[in-house]
Amino acid sequence: MLDRWVHQVVCWARRKSPWVLHFNSGGCNGCDIEILDLLTPRYDVERLGIVKEASPRHADILLCTGPVTRQSRDRLRRIYEQMPAPKWVVAMGSCACSGGLFAEGFNVLGGVDQILPVDIYVPGCPCRPEAMIDGIARLLGEIK
Ligand code: SF4
Question: Are strands 120-122 and 51-52 parallel, antiparallel or unpaired?
Answer without folding.
Answer: unpaired
